[in-house]
C-alpha cells in the first residue's frame, strides 16, 4: 500500500469498509489479482465469538476457491449429513428437511462451522498479500466522488486523527447499519418482519452427550432452534416472548435456565456466548451508486431460519470481485458493475422472503394459530413426506444469455493426463472455464481471445480429445460422467448443448452447440465492453 508522504492521504485501487468475512474475501480476491486494496474497520480487533454457524455446498465451493476447502479445515467446519427436524410443543413431527448428501457444487449440502476460526484463516491469507493494507480502529466518514476517483474521510477512533483514502472504487461491506450506504443516500427497504431471539453458544465438557441433530421446536411456550455450532460446539436460539423484555432474556441466569431443559448445565458445559439479536428482513434498493458498491449485510439482511445470511454475502463477493478486477485492469467497461446489483439482488431477496416464510411458521405463540399450523403441516407431511424446497434462483438480469444463462454451474470429479482425481476447479486452478464435449469444438477460439479469457480467469477445457487439439486446451476425464449428464440435462432436441461458458463466480454465461462456440465466446467478450449490458442480456 502506498502512503503519500505526510499529506494524510492513502492511495488504493479499491477501498473496502468492513473487515468481516465478506470484506476479507473481497480483499483476498482483489489482492491476489495484484490490486492495491485498503481495508478499513472501526473495530480494533476481530469479533472473537460465534455468529453465523451454517453454510451450504455453494459456500464450500467459494472456500475451495481461496484455498480453504472444507475437508482441509476440519477444525473450522464439518459436514452435517442428516435431517433438519421440525417438531411442535407436543413432540409431533411437523416436517423433516433433508440436509444430507452432496450438492451440485461438489460438497456436502450442509456444514456447521465456527466463524471466528474461519475468519482467522482468512486473516492469515490476507496478511500474505503485499498489496493489501488493513486499518483497524478507523471509521469511515464523509464521502465524495468524481468521474475518476472517490475520497473517504477516515477517523481513528482512539485519538480522532484524520486521513483521507483516495481510490477508484469504494465497497461498503460494513454491516446492516452501513455508514457507506447511509453516506451514499441509498434507500433501505424494510419488510417489517422482526423478532428478538436469544442466541446461546455452548462448548460441551467431557462426558456430555451432545445431541447431534439439527432441530426446530415450534412450541408456543418458547419457539427454539437447536443446531450444531461447528466442531466442538452447539447452538441454541430462543425467541423473546410477548411481555418479556430484551434485558430479562439476555441474562446469564436465563440462558442456563433455558438450557437446563436439554440437560446442559454449568457443571457439564461452558457458556461461550449469549446475546439477543433482532432478526430482520431488509435490502438496499441500489447496490451501486457511482463509484460506491455495497456487499453483504450492507446490501441485505435476513432472518437466520434458512441459514443463508452470510452465504448471500460471500456470493456477493464472488460476483463483485471478478467484475471489479476486470474494470480496474481495463478489461471491461465500468458498466459491467451495473450488472452486479440486478444479478445478486434476485437471489438475495428470494432468500429474504423464504426466510420470512419460515419465520412465519416458527414464531407463533398464539395457541389457536399454532394448532392450525400443526394440523396443516402434520397432514401434509403424512401425505407427501416432502419438505418445502428452498428457492433456487439464478442470477437476475445481467451478463448472461440464453435459457440457462445465470444458472449455477455444477462441479464434478475429473482428472487430467497423468493427474489424480480431483474437483474441476482444483484441476484448472479456478472456477472459470469454457468447457466443451470435444476439443475440436474449441479450435475456432483465437489465441487473442484465449488470452483475454485467461486474463478474466476463464480457461479452456475439453471432456474428450479429438484428432485436432487446440493449443491451451486442458483435456480432462469426466470420472463419474457428471459433466456429460449435466450437458444432456441442459440440452433439448431443438437446442443441443455441447459447450458451456462458466464465469469466475460459478455461474453460466451461456451454452452453445459445438458449431457456435466462437459466437458464445465473442458474445461474452463483447459484453464486457458494452455500455448496455443490463438492457442487452
TrEMBL record:
Keywords attached to this entry? Oxidoreductase
Select a single GO molecular function from the record's annotations and give it.
3-(3-hydroxyphenyl)propionate hydroxylase activity
Biological process (GO), any one = 3-(3-hydroxy)phenylpropionate catabolic process
Pfam families noted in UniProt: FAD_binding_3
Ranges for domain FAD-binding come to 12-355
- Quote the InterPro entries the UniProt record gives: FAD-bd, FAD/NAD-bd_sf, PheA/TfdB_FAD_monoxygenase
Extract the PANTHER family matched here: 3-(3-HYDROXY-PHENYL)PROPIONATE/3-HYDROXYCINNAMIC ACID HYDROXYLASE, FAD-BINDING MONOOXYGENASE
Q: What is this protein called?
A: Bifunctional 3-(3-hydroxy-phenyl)propionate/3-hydroxycinnamic acid hydroxylase
Task: Name the species this protein comes from.
Answer: Arthrobacter nitrophenolicus
Amino acid at each position: 500500500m502506498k502512503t503519500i508522504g505526510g499529506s494524510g492521504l492513502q492511495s488504493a485501487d479499491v477501498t473496502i469498509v468492513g473487515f468481516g468475512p465478506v470484506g476479507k474475501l473481497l480483499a483476498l480476491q482483489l489482492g491476489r489479482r495484484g490490486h492495491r486494496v485498503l481495508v478499513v474497520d472501526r473495530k480494533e480487533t476481530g469479533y472473537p465469538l460465534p455468529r453465523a454457524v451454517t453454510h451450504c455446498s455453494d459456500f464450500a465451493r467459494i472456500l475451495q476457491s481461496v484455498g480453504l476447502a472444507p475437508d482441509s479445515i476440519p477444525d473450522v467446519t464439518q459436514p452435517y449429513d442428516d435431517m433438519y427436524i421440525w417438531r411442535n410443543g407436543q413432540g409431533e413431527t411437523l416436517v423433516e428437511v433433508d440436509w444430507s448428501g452432496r450438492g451440485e457444487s461438489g460438497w456436502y449440502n450442509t456444514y456447521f462451522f465456527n466463524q471466528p476460526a474461519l475468519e482467522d484463516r482468512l486473516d492469515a491469507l490476507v496478511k500474505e498479500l503485499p498489496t493489501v493494507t488493513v486499518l483497524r480502529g478507523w471509521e469511515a466518514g464523509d464521502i465524495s466522488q468524481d468521474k475518476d476517483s472517490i475520497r473517504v474521510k477516515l477517523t481513528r477512533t482512539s485519538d480522532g486523527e484524520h486521513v483521507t483514502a483516495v481510490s477508484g472504487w469504494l465497497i461498503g461491506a460494513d454491516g446492516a447499519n452501513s455508514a457507506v450506504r447511509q453516506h451514499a443516500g441509498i434507500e433501505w427497504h424494510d419488510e417489517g418482519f422482526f423478532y428478538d431471539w436469544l442466541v446461546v453458544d455452548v462448548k460441551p465438557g467431557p462426558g456430555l452427550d451432545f445431541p447431534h441433530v439439527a432441530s426446530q421446536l415450534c412450541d408456543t411456550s418458547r419457539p427454539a432452534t437447536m443446531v450444531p455450532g461447528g466442531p466442538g460446539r452447539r447452538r441454541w436460539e430462543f425467541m423473546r416472548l410477548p411481555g418479556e423484555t430484551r434485558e430479562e432474556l439476555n441474562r446469564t441466569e436465563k440462558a442456563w435456565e433455558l438450557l437446563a431443559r436439554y440437560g446442559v448445565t454449568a457443571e457439564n458445559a461452558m457458556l461461550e456466548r449469549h446475546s439477543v439479536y433482532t432478526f430482520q428482513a431488509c435490502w438496499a434498493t441500489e447496490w451501486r451508486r457511482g463509484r460506491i458498491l455495497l456487499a453483504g449485510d450492507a446490501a441485505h439482511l435476513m432472518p437466520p431460519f434458512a441459514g443463508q445470511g452470510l452465504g448471500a454475502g460471500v456470493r456477493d463477493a464472488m460476483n463483485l470481485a471478478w467484475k471489479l478486477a476486470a474494470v480496474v485492469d481495463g478489461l471491461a467497461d465500468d458498466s459491467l458493475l451495473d450488472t452486479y446489483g440486478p444479478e445478486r439482488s434476485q437471489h438475495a431477496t428470494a432468500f429474504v422472503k423464504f426466510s420470512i416464510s419460515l419465520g412465519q411458521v416458527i414464531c407463533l405463540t398464539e395457541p389457536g394459530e399454532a394448532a392450525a399450523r400443526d394440523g396443516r403441516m402434520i397432514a401434509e407431511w403424512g401425505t407427501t413426506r416432502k419438505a418445502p424446497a428452498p428457492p433456487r434462483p439464478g442470477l437476475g438480469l445481467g451478463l448472461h444469455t440464453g435459457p440457462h444463462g445465470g444458472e449455477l454451474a455444477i462441479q464434478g470429479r475429473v482428472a487430467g493426463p497423468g493427474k489424480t482425481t480431483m474437483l474441476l476447479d482444483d484441476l484448472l486452478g479456478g472456477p472459470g472455464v469454457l468447457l466443451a464435449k470435444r476439443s475440436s469444438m474449441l479450435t475456432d477460439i483465437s489465441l487473442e481471445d484465449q488470452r483475454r479469457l485467461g486474463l478474466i480467469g476463464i480457461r479452456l477445457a475439453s471432456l474428450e480429445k479429438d484428432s485436432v487439439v487446440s493449443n491451451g486446451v486442458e483435456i480432462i476425464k469426466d470420472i463419474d460422467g457428471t459433466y456429460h449428464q449435466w450437458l444432456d440435462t441442459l440440452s433439448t432436441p431443438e437446442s443441443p448443448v455441447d459447450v458451456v461458458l462458466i464465469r469466475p463466480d460459478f455461474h453460466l454465461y451461456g451454452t452453445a452447440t459445438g458449431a457456435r462456440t466462437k459466437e458464445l465466446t465473442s458474445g461474452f467478450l463483447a459484453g464486457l465492453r458494452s455500455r448496455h449490458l443490463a438492457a442487452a442480456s
